[in-house]
Structure formats: structure tokens, C-alpha cells
Design goal:
Blueprint: H1 2-55, E1 64-68, H2 73-85, H3 96-104, E2 109-117, E3 121-128, E4 131-138, E5 144-152, E6 163-167, H4 171-186, E7 191-197, E8 203-208, E9 217-223, H5 227-242, E10 249-253, E11 260-264, E12 270-273
Parallel strand pairs: 1-3, 4-6, 6-7, 9-10
Antiparallel strand pairs: 2-3, 4-5, 7-8, 8-9, 10-11, 11-12
Helix pairs in contact: 4-5
């Protein structure tokens, strides 16, 4: 009997130890969880206070604007006025991209980059435009509904202001077409004076061969498809067969699969040239 009591006693002691350990672990776990959630709460409050400090409009205000550009000093002041007008937050929340877009809509500014300089300054770097293009957008009835000036890249060489036209909302596509064709035509001494994409998608351009004469124009009919390739074809034929008679050219029709048709100023008949 004493042996049995001793064995039972040992089992009771083991169970007591297990229960005590479990109680200790439970208490310790609750303490750890309390500390964990308490720490998270404190961190959350601190983050809210920091965010309020940084984002509050009256704090960390922009105090200075520095303009870096080759533009005349009077234009620097104009840039500063535009930047001040478009600041809608403090040092941390100001919309730099919005300021850049606003500047690049100003005639004479091709590209603008705005950066923060700690603690209260904006640095504005401006690349001026050396030339402008006129854009005219039309609705489906042919009525003008858009009008704008486009800043051209400094590497675009122009002596006249090109006039671009097309359906409203297609300014980017027409501008790209102009840039692609202007380089090709410039290589043979010609310059795009007007470029238009009609409602039916057909392209036509007027190129100038004498910058001193506004009426020294040649009409190029380019059709709907592959207009840049057709301009390339024209420049090849122009260099080989037409450049010496450039003042006699009135219109060149490039809407053929191969070759082109030339209309002369001095006679009504058209000449078909194979390329």
C-alpha cells in the first residue's frame, strides 16, 4: 500500500508541476502580448504625430525658389512666378510633377525639372525652347476646337513656325510625324511649313524651299499609310532629279505604291516619276 501511495504521490507532484508551469507560461504569454500591443500602440501614436507635423500646411513651407537656366534673367522671374502659383503644399507634399507640367506648357520652355533642396528650397532647372510650332485641332465637322503653341526640342532647326493640324486629341501623333519628316526634309534643304492629317487619316504637307519667300511652297500628298516611308522616297527622288527645278514644283503626289507624280507650276500636265 505504501508503494502505491508513493507512486500516486509522484504522479500528483508531476501534475502539480505541469499545472504550475502552464500557469506560468500563460501569465508570461499574456505579459508578452501586452507589451507587444502596447508597443504597437505607442508607435502608431508617434507615427500619427510625425505625419501631422510633416503634412500640416503651415509647417516646412517653401521659402525660396532657385532657377537654373540659360534664359534671360527676366525670364527667371517669370518662371518663379509660375512655380509660386503652382505650389499646393509644403516641402514634403508639394507636387513637383504638377509644377513641371505647368512650366512646360509655357511658350519658350521645352523641359523643366524641379527638385527639393533641404530645408525650404526648390531648385528649378529649365531647358529653353528655341522654336515653336502652332497646333490647331478640329472636330468631326471641321470646326477648330483646339489651339496651342508647342515647344520644340532645341535640336530642331526651323526658320519658319510650322503649323500642325489634325483631329482634336491627336496633337502628339501629328507632332511625332512632323519631327520624323522634318529631319528627312531638312537633309535636302527643305522645311515643313504646314502638316495636316485629315479626318480620313490622309496626310499632306507643305514644304518650303526658300525661307525668304512665304509662298515658296511645295504640296506633298502622302496618303494614309506609311507617310514617313513616302517622304523618304521623295527625298531620294528630289536629290536625284528634282532639286535643280525646285522653284517649278507645285505638287508631288506620293500616294502611289511605287514612284510619284509631279505637278509643275509652269504647266498643267503631270509627270510620273518611277523611283
Amino acid at each position: 500500500m505504501s508503494h502505491r501511495r508513493s507512486h500516486s504521490s509522484r504522479w500528483r507532484d508531476c501534475w502539480s508541476t505541469v499545472h504550475a508551469g502552464a500557469a506560468y507560461i500563460g501569465a508570461t504569454g499574456r505579459g508578452v502580448m501586452f507589451v507587444y500591443f502596447g508597443t504597437l500602440l505607442i508607435l502608431g501614436v508617434v507615427l500619427v504625430l510625425i505625419a501631422d507635423l510633416l503634412l500640416r500646411p503651415g509647417n516646412f513651407t517653401i521659402e525660396r525658389i532657385t532657377v537654373v537656366s540659360d534664359m534671360p534673367s527676366k525670364d527667371h522671374k517669370r518662371v518663379q512666378r509660375i512655380v509660386w502659383k503652382n505650389i499646393n503644399g509644403n516641402y514634403f507634399t508639394v507636387d513637383l510633377g504638377g509644377i513641371e507640367r505647368a512650366l512646360e506648357q509655357v511658350p519658350g520652355i521645352y523641359q523643366a525639372t524641379v527638385r527639393r533642396i533641404w530645408p525650404d528650397r526648390l531648385r528649378v532647372t529649365v531647358q529653353p525652347s528655341t522654336a515653336l510650332a502652332e497646333w490647331q485641332g478640329f472636330n468631326q465637322h471641321g470646326d477648330p476646337v483646339e489651339r496651342a503653341l508647342i515647344n520644340l526640342s532645341p535640336d530642331v532647326l526651323v526658320t519658319v513656325v510650322p503649323r500642325l493640324a489634325g483631329s482634336a486629341g491627336r496633337q502628339r501623333q501629328v507632332l511625332k510625324m512632323y519631327l520624323d519628316t522634318a529631319k528627312l526634309l531638312h537633309s535636302v534643304g527643305l522645311e515643313v511649313a504646314r502638316l495636316r492629317q485629315g479626318e480620313n487619316g490622309e496626310w499632306r504637307a507643305e514644304v518650303q524651299f526658300d525661307s525668304k519667300r512665304p509662298d515658296a511652297l511645295i504640296m506633298l500628298l502622302l496618303g494614309r499609310h506609311h507617310p514617313v516611308s513616302r517622304v523618304k522616297r521623295f527625298t531620294r527622288v528630289f536629290s536625284l532629279a528634282l532639286s535643280e527645278r525646285v522653284s517649278e514644283l507645285a505638287r508631288v503626289d506620293l500616294r502611289y505604291e511605287r514612284g510619284l507624280a509631279v505637278s509643275w507650276r509652269v504647266r498643267a500636265s503631270a509627270t510620273h516619276v518611277k523611283s
